[in-house]
Structure formats: C-alpha cells, structure tokens
Amino acid sequence: MYSKKTIKVHVELSNICNAICPQCLRNYIDKNTGELSVRDALNTHELTIEDYRQIFDNEFFRTFHLKRVNFCGNISDPIASRDLQEIVEHHIINNPNTQIKVATNGGLKSNGWWREFGDLLSHVKHLVSFGIDGLEDTHSRYRVNTNYNKVISNATAFIEGGGKAAWQFLEFKHNEHQISEARALAKELGFEEFKHIVTPRFANRKTNKLAYTFRGETFVLEESSKSVSTGLKSSVKSGHILCKALDDHEFFLDHDGSVYPCCWVAQRKHDHELLQYHDNRMNAIENNLTGILTNSFFFDKLEESWDTKPSYSCIKFCDDENNSRKDKYVFRE
Ligand code: SF4
Ligand code: SF4
After folding, report:
1. Residue 235 binned pLDDT confidence (cut-offs 50, 70, 90)
2. Partner of 254 for a Cys bridge, out of 221, 258, 271, 316, CB 3.0 to 4.6 A?
3. Could you give the CA distance from residue 147 to residue 194 in angstroms, rounded to a whole number?
4. What's the DSSP call for residue 239?
C-alpha cells in the first residue's frame, strides 16, 4: 500500500493521559449516575525507546524518507510518555529533515521540562499544538482535570525555550464567545498559530447536548452555534472511498506496536469484518516495519474492500461525498 518513498507516521505512544475529556474515547458517562469516568485497562502501557529503535530501524530509514511524525493518537497524551525526548532525538538523529508534530493538553510536566523540550525541537521543523478550550473560566469544562494557568505557563515556557506552538481551541456553546479574546492572547504570548475546531462528535448523539457530573458538580456541553451535526446526520454517501491515509502517505503506529492505516481503523470499534485480517503479522515490534508497509495481507484486503464492501470507518471518514473528518471543521488563523 505504501509504495512511495516519502512517508508520514501518526504515533500513539501510550494509553496514558491526565485529562478526562467527556467526548474522548478514553472516557464514558455512567448511564445511571451521570458520572464522567475513565474506562478500565488504561494508563498501563507505553512504547519505550528500545521498542521504538527496534521499530524505526536502519532498514526503515534506508527505504523511506520520513517526512513527518505526528505524536497524537486516540487515547493518550504524548507528554505522558517517559521516553518522549529520547524518541524525538531518535528521529532527529536519523533524519533531521523530519517534521515533528505533537498534540497535547499541556497539563503535564514542569516549566523547566517544557523549556528544554522547546530547545530540543528548535533545531528541527516542528509544531506543538496545545489543546486550550477557552480561557480561565471555561477551559476545563471540556479539558476536564487540567488547569488553564498551568497549561498557559507550560506553553509559554516551551515558546521561551525556542519551541513553535499552536493554540487549538475546541469550540462549544460555552466558549464560542471567547474565540477573539483567545486569538489575541495567543498572539501576545507568541503562539505561531491559532486554530479553532467545531467538533463533529455531536453527530454521534441524538441531541447536541451532553451532561456529565465530575467531583459532585454537573456540567453541560452543547454544540457551538456553527452546528455541523445536523448536516452530518442526514448526509448522503457516494460509496466511493478516497483513502486519506493513502492520499497523505501516512500510517498509524499504536502503542503496542500494531500498524494500522489510520487512527480511525485503529480505534477497533466498528470495523470487525476488516480487522479479522489484522493479526500479529501487523505488529512492528515482532515483525519488520518496512515489510509490513510494503507487502502485507491486511493492506491488500483493505484496498480490496473499498471496491467491494468498505468498512464503517472508511465510509464515515473517507467517502468522497460527505465525511466527518475533523480537518474539515478546523479554522486556521
Ligand atoms: S487530552 Fe486527548 S487523550 Fe486526553 S482525555 Fe483529552 S482528548 Fe483524550
Ligand atoms: S478510514 Fe479507511 S479509507 Fe479512511 S484513511 Fe482510514 S483506511 Fe483509509
């Protein structure tokens, strides 16, 4: 599937995160109590620097030109990984032209750590996106269990250290009036970019509201006025798949070493029929990554499925007529 020399990777370094965002896959709202809770079997595993060196070996760097590594994922914050700095260094040593992207809630680690991280990244092309969903009075309504002032001081230390930062603002009804103030503050603090995102996740629900209880208090999240859920719920599909992973030459590496085409299929929520072909031959700790990318039974089956019976995720995210890809709802400034 990945026949071109230039390639990108999206990495889930662990299953660890400090935040409890109500619409994140990690978390759920208890049907009986309304309590916002973290799912079981999380915060247990991460890719180590040893795993990482084994996966991204000399053969990989000889075969592919790695254009970008994006430390983001479905269920983790990359800053929670103990070996993150060494992992980043592994990329810098093997290809100083690889762009390093990181998405974080910014709530972990000290100012000193962030200053050092800014200095490390200042030598290469990079961007770290901080999820800051409002100002002091609104940020934690969605980014639960993180502290606005700590996030801002970490981001500022990172910028002072030489890092390039983006402010990523998830827009809801309770914070949409603060976008212009946040944009001005981002500029003042030295963020390179400000982007706000209208989340399509309310399309998965009957209503565009979500109530939850956290530490004895009840909160309500409501979709922003730029509602996208109604259109998505009634969207008509063409049946023609335009695979984003193939188009971007990007693959997804999970924290157990498994290789997937993208973060959507890696969620393993709905694509059971397709995933019956995904076995330990797709694990890059046990098998050679270059071999997986250039010649694998699973990727052959995936490509075949687009013409015969596309999986749930492929239809939802990559139908060329109507899809619910987050990147459609990002406003960059
Ligand atoms: S910060 Fe990211 S991984 Fe952590 S709970 Fe929020 S959305 Fe999920
Ligand atoms: S959802 Fe399917 S079509 Fe879209 S990027 Fe992933 S594998 Fe490709």
Report:
1. confident
2. 258
3. 19
4. S
> 282 and 292 in contact (C-beta within 8 Å)?
yes
**Ligand 1 mutation target, pool 11, 75, 81, 104, most atoms within 8 A of CB:** 75
Q: Is residue 59 in a domain?
A: yes
CATH number, domain containing residue 128? 3.20.20
Which residues lie below 8 Å from residue 81, measured CB to CB, with a gap of 6+? 13, 14, 16, 46, 47, 87
For 33-87, what is each residue's pLDDT tens digit?
999 999 999 999 999 999 999 999 999 999 999 999 999 999 999 999 999 999 9
Ligand minimally distant from the alpha carbon of residue 142? 1
Any ligand 1 atom below 6 A from CB of 246: no
Output b/e per residue, 207-231; b: 16+ Cβ within 10 A: ebebebebeeeebebbbbeeebbee
What pTM was estimated for this model as a whole? 0.95
Pocket test for ligand 1, best of 10, 11, 18, 26 (most atoms within 8 A of CB): 26
Interatomic CA distance for residues 135 and 141, integer angstroms: 10
The amino acid that residue 114 corresponds to is: W
List pLDDT tens digits, range 291-331.
999 999 999 999 999 999 999 999 999 988 877 777 777 78
Number of folded domains in the chain? 1
Q: Which atom of ligand 1 is nearest to the CA of 23?
A: 7
Determine the distance from the C-alpha atom of residue 299 to the mean position of all C-alpha atoms in its chain, rounded to a whole number. 22
Which range marks the domain in which residue 141 is found?
6-236+244-299+324-332
Question: Do the domain assignments include residue 35?
Answer: yes
Q: How far apart are CA 292 and CA 6, in angstroms?
A: 16
Q: What share of the chain is helix, strand, coil (3-state, %, to 5)?
A: 35, 20, 40
Asked if the structure places residue 313 within a domain, the reply is no
Residue 257 inside a domain? The answer is yes
